[in-house]
Amino acid sequence: MADPYYITTAINYPNGRPHIGHAYEAIAADVIARFQRWMGREVRFQTGTDEHGLKMARKAAEQGLTPRELADEMSGYFREMDAVLGIEYDRFIRTVEPGHHRASQALWEAMAAAGDLYLDRYEGWYSVRDEAYYDESELTGVGAERLSPQGTPVEWTVEESWFFRLSKYQDRLLELLKSPGFCEPESRRNEMIAFVSGGLNDLSVSRTSFDWGVKVPGAEGHVMYVWVDALTNYLTGLGYPADTPEWRSFWPASLHLVGKDIMRFHTVYWPAFLMSAGLSLPRQVFGHGFILNRGQKESKSLGNVTDPVELAERFGVDNLRYFLMREVAFGQDGSYSAQAIVNRCNAELANSFGNLVQRSLSMISKNMDGILEVFSRSDADDALLAAVHHACLEELPREFEGLSFTQGIEAWMQAVWACNRYVDEQAPWTLRKTDPERMKAVLLTLFVAIRDLAMAIQPVVPAKAAAVLDMLGVPSTERSRTDLERDWYPALVAAGHRVAPPAPVFPRLDLPETEPA
Asked: What is the DSSP string of 192-238?
């Protein structure tokens, strides 16, 4: 049996409501989790909110709230987003949980026991927005207008701090990063190799200028640097430091899915902390790209921030999921617009797959009274079913396993288009008059092909695929990849399943009148 699979998103920083970037990462992780379950693996999927740090403290003060009040409110919006988008996580973690504080302190104590923490004074540049320290050489601008590599303001910070001996791990980190597979895609790996090769300074890992965070054990007035606390969430969710069944089954993590802008924290700082604590390293960190609004990064100042819940309600949850996984080459930046969503979903889901399902099942219902029969297949039938089966059983799974969703869906779409060409070539509406038995064989060949197609695309469009499989009479307990390999059709015939007139599953979308193209 395949190894258990543990996937995490970066926990979201809830100093504002969710935007399309949060939705993209959640959807991608959910697709991966659903795919791995479909492949037969035991999966644990964790997401959540990262609620400590100076940024949260300042935002709460601006709004006349306590940090906890702000955290409680904003974390709820991320749960709502996940619910609307069909995100089926196993654990939603909040860093304000007492168990998370215990886990963070246990990791701290393990790093201290390794001799990797020491008390000193920090003087340097800090970005509150990124919750990150930056070296002088990384900044742009002059004077009070200094900016981080992410374009965020930095401020000069001076305070007593505990430091982590990051420099001690430079050689081990370089060796790790140079091993393909750990830090992906390759472009991100090269960036991190260049960063570490430039030399690592020890890292300030505590703050004394505010108190909204995890208390440093044995150090009055110190709270942990928010990234020490945040990264520990991946351990907390498995019960660390206790020896729980979850810990034994799922650590090390199979995949940390994060935005490309936080790769340094996940592929340099995080493995160094784990090395210090004597813990196994995650198998892979993948940095996805940004989702741009008509080619621009969303920002409040530009007034182009999109509410993903509103977007899902406007176009449909599964349409949005399909568009993001199909349109954007995973690991690269991608762009969306209302026009692009409508065009893609109408062309592929409505006109191609949806129309295939609708007209095939309609003809079976109308011309065969919905009755399924055992039938003899011609060479053309066998060729079509072999092509569809190969795409669904081999090509899509191979590409999805490598996180190449666009290519996997392309293989699936090629199979859909093959079915539509087959319909046009065989012309069952003509066969109804000239050769009724051949008409039945054609329609039932399509019935079998549609089942394979709906099974394979479940991770991407779970609700819509389930609706198709329900109409086909495929039991909800028989929809995994293993089931795809079974000879299922004779049992369905024997059970007397009848195809009812189908309800449209993928209606065409209209472009909102107020939305620019």
From this structure: HHHHHHT----EE-EESS---SPBPTT-TT-EE-HHHHHHTHHHHTT
pLDDT digits (tens, 9 = 90+) for 54-106: 889 999 999 999 999 999 999 999 999 999 999 999 999 999 999 999 999 99
What CA–CA distance (Å, rounded) separates 456 from 390? 11
The answer to whether 340 touches 291, Cβ cutoff 8 Å, is no
Give pLDDT tens digits for 145-200: 789 888 888 888 888 999 999 999 999 999 999 998 999 999 999 999 999 999 99
pLDDT at 298: 66
H helix and E strand count, the chain: 23, 14
Instruction: Check if the beta carbon of residue 95 is closer than 8 Å to that of residue 233.
Output: yes
Q: Please give the biggest Cα pair distance in the chain.
A: 90
Distance of CA 87 to the CA centre of its chain: 9
Contact call for residues 147 and 124 (beta carbons, < 8 A): no
pTM (predicted TM-score): 0.93
Classify 323 as helix, strand or coil: helix
Q: Is the peptide bond before 217 cis (omega within 30 degrees of 0)?
A: no
Give the tens place of pLDDT for each residue, 226-263.
999 999 999 999 999 999 999 999 999 999 999 999 99
Given pLDDT bands bounded at 50, 70 and 90, which one contains residue 516? very low
pLDDT band at 302 (very low <50, low <70, confident <90, very high): low
Beta-bridge partners for 155: 126
Closest CA to 4 of 74, 82, 90, 87: 90
CA–CA distance, 305 with 253 (Å, rounded to integer): 32
Q: Compute the distance between CA of residue 220 and CA of residue 42 in angstroms, rounded to an integer.
A: 43
Decide: 85 and 26 in contact? Cβ < 8 Å. Answer: yes
* Closest C-alpha to 285, from 262, 307, 301, 305: 262
Helix (H) or strand (E) run with residue 247 in it: helix 245-250
- Over residues 488-497, the mean pLDDT reads 93
Report the distance separating Cα 159 and Cα 81, nearest Å: 38
With beta carbons less than 8 A apart as the criterion, state whether 133 and 126 touch. yes
Q: Are 440 and 368 in contact (CB under 8 A)?
A: yes
| 154 close to 148: Cβ distance less than 8 angstroms | yes
CA–CA separation, 89 and 83 (whole Å): 10
Q: What are 347's two structure tokens?
A: 């062309």
Give the DSSP H or E segment for 164: strand 155-164
What tokens does 72 get?
């409680």
CA pair distance 21, 129, nearest whole angstrom: 16
Q: How many Å apart are CA 63 and CA 270, to the nearest integer?
A: 33
Phi, psi of 499 (to 5 degrees): -85, 115
Strand order in the sheet with 203-204: 132-134, 117-127, 155-164, 203-204
